[in-house]
From TrEMBL:
Pfam family, one: DUF2508
Superkingdom of source: Bacteria
Protein name, UniProt field: YaaL family protein
InterPro entries documented for this protein: DUF2508
Length: 83
C-alpha cells in the first residue's frame, strides 16, 4: 500500500493550521491595504486602492466565518490586555 490513511484528528489539525495561517496572512494584507489607502487619502485616493482594501476585508471576513464554523481558535492578539 503506497498511501496510508491519516487519522481524522490529524487531518483536521492540519486544515485548522492552514486556515489560521491564511487568515493571518489575509489580515496582514488587509491592514496593509488600509494603511496604503489612508496614506494616499490626502492625494485623492483612487478607487483601485479602495477596491483593493475592500477586497482584502471581504477575504478576511470570509475566512473568519469558515474558522467559526469549524470552531478554530487562533492566538490572542498581543494588543489585548487581559486583567
Amino acid at each position: 500500500m503506497l498511501f496510508r490513511r491519516q487519522p481524522k484528528h490529524e487531518v483536521e489539525k492540519k486544515r485548522n493550521q492552514r486556515l489560521l495561517a491564511t487568515i493571518y496572512e489575509t489580515k496582514a494584507s488587509w491592514d496593509h491595504a488600509r494603511e496604503t489607502e489612508r496614506a494616499v487619502y490626502e492625494a485623492n485616493v483612487s478607487s483601485e486602492l479602495q477596491d483593493r482594501a475592500h477586497l482584502q476585508e471581504q477575504k478576511y471576513l470570509y475566512l473568519y466565518r469558515i474558522a467559526r464554523r469549524y470552531h478554530v481558535h487562533g492566538q490572542l492578539n498581543q494588543g489585548i490586555v487581559s486583567q
